[in-house]
Amino acid sequence: MSLKEKNRFKPIFKQLIRLRENVQNRQKILKFKKKKWQTFLTFYSYKLKNYKKFKPLDHTKYFVTKHGTRGMSYKKRFRDTLQAGRKLRIFYGNLLKKYFKKKIRIAIKKKQYKKRIENTFLNFFETRLDTVLYRAKFAPTVRSAQQLILHGKVYVNQVQVKSKAYHLKSGDVVNLSLDSLNLYENHIINSIKWSVPPKHLLINYRTLQILFLNNLESTNLASEFLFNLKLQKILVNSSKQ
Questions:
Q1: What is the CA angle 217-221-224, rounded to 5?
Q2: Which residues of 196-232 are buried (b: 16+ CB within 10 A; e: fewer)?
Q3: CA 177 → CA 105, 183, 184, 207, 241, distances in Å?
Q4: Which residue in 157, 155, 124, 123 sits closest to 138, CA to CA?
Q5: Cα 59 to Cα 120: distance, rounded to the nearest angstrom
């Protein structure tokens, strides 16, 4: 195993200091008491108080700043683009940069009439089994959902699946093993951002089943994130490389 693979799943809390964003909603970070965390925790605690003021930006629209020169320097635009890509990769389970860019190239090639690249790109990740488990509140993070899959707790159409990158199709039924019922219940109860399940999922919390509808085009996924995606910057930057 390469050094990059070994370091891939080390604790990511230090990366959050530079990003200034609790991308994976880890509540453990609020208990850190070391001095190096104070600046970040002060900023993040203030953001939590004003959480209701957060307005997710629709990723299918192009936004122009009110002030033509503010924040438009090459250095700041380059930094924002790198941070936006890093946030998205960490959110989806700390994906490799190589895998991330590969999906961007595929999305550009698969661009169809009246379908935006942003939607095609997000569909690659939202149809993954680990992401679906997270959206259904059976896991607190995508990384935790991956652990459930690798330990053989997840079944698709009554067949055990151990591939975290398994892509679901319309009509697929996901079942969870009942021997870890207490674990699922704790994740659901302790879910911070509880909301109506996405339109592309039908969830039965009594039987621990998920029906995947695959109507992602009718779902505004921007509201499912606690940070602005800035997909235009990510896609444009990666297409030039």
A1: 155
A2: eebebbebeeeebebebbeebeebebbebbbbbbbbb
A3: 36, 11, 10, 10, 43
A4: 155
A5: 12
Q: What are 202's two structure tokens?
A: 């039908």
- Half-sphere exposure at residue 173, Cβ-oriented, CA atoms within 13 angstroms: 8
CB 86 within 8 A of CB 227: no
Distance, in Å, from the CA atom of 199 to the CA atom of 212, rounded to the nearest integer, reads 10
pTM for the full predicted model = 0.81
Domain 129-213, CATH? 3.10.290.10
Q: Read off the amino acid at residue 109.
A: K
At 122-146, the pLDDT tens digits run: 888 999 999 999 988 898 888 889 9
The number of residues in the chain equals 241
pLDDT in tens, 65-120: 665 555 566 677 788 888 888 888 988 988 888 888 888 888 877 765 446 778 88
Closest of 79, 125, 82, 80 to residue 104, by C-alpha: 125
Domain ranges for the chain = 3-124+231-240, 129-213
